[in-house]
Specification:
single chain, alpha/beta, Rossmann fold, GMP Synthetase, Chain A, domain 3, nine-stranded mixed beta sheet, four-stranded parallel beta sheet, 25 strands, about 30% helix, about 25% strand
């Protein structure tokens, strides 16, 4: 697989700590320190390196080297990290596959990325079988492929593995950095979408992942004494980069349940003495609403961090009432994903200024510009554009999209924001009309296209409605074909809407992930349009954009 570089080709370097080096070096520096805590047990850094070495042998046996991609379809799992680090050693490219998508949606990504082999977790067997039938890719079931030789030791986080005393085995020096893939070789490809709804594979390099980690370590003061809780799924850049890889680079401990459960999360924080927790508004909201919130032992938490979208102030306040510092940042898949961060001693200032995205991270240059590319004054809204070493390589197989994204030498995010006089950032909106629901991206064009495949649908426009749990959910305004409308008496109009609602839901279930299916529908004779013929989204949002009550259809 060869990825487009969009005019950003640089001299190949092999003197950089790419991720294939990280676990080998850590196993040499602090072999008996606990690296990972999962439901399967505890792994020291020595054990982590054993798992990565096994995964490296598996990938090499499959010929996954020199830019060849492979898929990972599983919940959060130690073997996911083994495979990611191993890709950094063989030159392969790991492609996380979103298990919340349908087989039809995943099939496009598998074919687009040229994936021949997909590593599958136990919970994804049925979905994987559908994907195999659709694409012909080879499935490797993780419990069978990995032989289980990696020890899972007992004992509290931070202790030496059971049955092994510190220093019992002589640490092995890592291979030289020069023997591993280069700084700007891709190692991870995460699919994201544009306003057209067609997914694009963002290629992230060793340099990108290293600098993302450095930015986080510097801003948040991560050290070997931190225990970070990973509740975001590794299938997204946020689960990997916030703060799983940064914590491991710093030599700390990562606690990683299989999936997010609010009650389990509260128990893990107290049990494992978690100091660092990253979440999105939906997960934070579920935590503070959980039955065990008031009684949970949260005394170890240094801070809770927020991303994905603005967290409701009432949710932030619940953390602060428990004496927990709460801060946030801003980022994208293309920035691996950190772009802006709020340094912890400035969290109160950022909240007071209503600018919770913080400031550009240490390794990131940022501007906010108007339509002509000129910097806007403090308080004025413009588009965020970025430069920095954690910016992605480009979109796989999309040289035109890559060149457009870097038009003018800066990465154009399509997101709108403003500065305060103190340099803090407030995100004003998304020019690409993307919706954020429970930390997931939803692109209206993709949902609209699926609706238009139904023979009864003439027009469709998808907008966001506020939701108390998921932040926002998609809502569809639909115009049915005239022949269908005219065949129903006016007195049956309400009945028609209900019937169409149910039918469209059923129709979409085979085409879209559940969180993308509209939480509600409104039926109109025709969509209102602007003078240039586009659907009048602002009018539709004013008319149909009222908040959905809690308990109504969830995304």
């Amino acid at each position: 697989m060869s990825g487009p570089r969009g005019g950003r080709e640089e001299a190949r370097s092999r003197n950089f700590p790419g991720i294939g080096y990280w676990t080998a070096k850590a196993a040499f520096l602090h072999p008996d320190r606990i690296a990972l805590v999962t439901p399967e047990g505890r792994r020291s850094y020595r054990d982590l390196e054993v798992g990565v070495a096994e995964a490296t042998s598996i990938l090499r046996g499959l010929g996954v080297e020199s830019g060849r991609s492979f898929g990972i379809l599983m919940w959060n799992d130690a073997r996911f990290l083994d495979l990611l680090f191993a890709a950094g050693r063989t030159g392969g490219v790991a492609v996380p596959l979103n298990w919340r998508l349908t087989a039809a949606e995943l099939a496009f990504q598998v074919e687009d990325a040229g994936i021949e082999t997909v590593f599958v977790g136990a919970e994804q067997e049925e979905l994987a079988a559908e994907l195999e039938a659709a694409t012909g890719c080879r499935l490797l079931r993780v419990p069978e492929v990995f032989d289980g030789s990696v020890p899972a030791a007992a004992g509290p986080a931070g202790s030496a593995p059971a049955g092994r005393s510190p220093g019992a085995e002589a640490p092995v020096p890592p291979p030289p950095m020069s023997s591993l893939p280069g700084d700007d070789d891709p190692v991870l490809m995460v699919y994201t979408s544009g306003t057209t709804g067609r997914p694009k594979g963002a290629l992230l390099t060793h340099r990108n992942l290293f600098w993302n980690a450095i930015n986080d370590v510097l801003a948040l003061g991560l050290t070997w004494q931190d225990t970070s809780l990973t509740i975001l799924p590794l299938m997204h850049a946020g689960g990997i980069g916030l703060f799983t890889l940064p914590t491991l680079l710093a030599g700390g401990t990562v606690v990683m349940p299989r999936r997010f459960d609010p009650e389990e999360t509260l128990e893990l924080i107290g049990q494992e003495k978690v100091t660092v927790m990253m979440g999105v508004p939906a997960t934070h909201g579920m935590l503070v609403d959980a039955a065990g919130w008031d009684a949970a032992d949260l005394s170890s938490l240094r801070f809770a961090y927020n991303g994905g979208d603005r967290c409701p102030p009432a949710v932030e306040a619940r953390f602060r009432e428990r004496g927990i510092l709460f801060a946030g940042g801003y980022g994208l898949t293309e920035t691996a994903p950190t772009a802006f961060l709020t340094e912890l001693d400035q969290a109160d200032d950022a909240r007071r200024l209503d600018a919770g995205a913080g400031k550009p991270s240490f390794g990131m240059d940022a501007r906010i510009v108007d339509a002509d590319g000129r910097d806007v004054a403090p308080g004025e809204v413009g588009e965020v554009v970025l430069q920095g070493p954690n910016l992605f390589l480009g979109y796989h197989g999309r040289p035109d999209a890559t060149a457009e994204a870097f038009r003018g030498g800066w990465f154009r995010t399509g997101d709108l924001a403003s500065w305060t006089a103190q340099g803090f950032t407030s995100i004003a909106g998304r020019s690409k009309q993307m919706l954020k629901s429970g930390g997931e991206n939803i692109y209206p064009a993709e949902v609209e296209q699926a609706l238009l495949e139904h023979p009864a649908v003439a027009e469709a426009c998808v907008i966001g409605r506020p939701h108390p749990r998921w932040n926002e959910v998609p809502f569809a305004v639909v115009a049915l074909r005239a022949a269908l409308r005219d065949g129903n008496a006016a007195g049956q109009a309400a009945g028609l809407a209900v019937a169409a609602d149910d039918e469209l839901r059923t129709f979409l279930e085979a085409r879209l992930a559940r969180f993308k299916i509209p939480a509600g529908f409104a039926f109109v004779d025709a969509l209102p349009r602007t003078s240039i013929g586009k659907p009048d989204r602002p009018l539709l949002e004013r008319t149909f954009g009222a908040a959905l009550p809690d308990g109504e259809e969830d995304a």
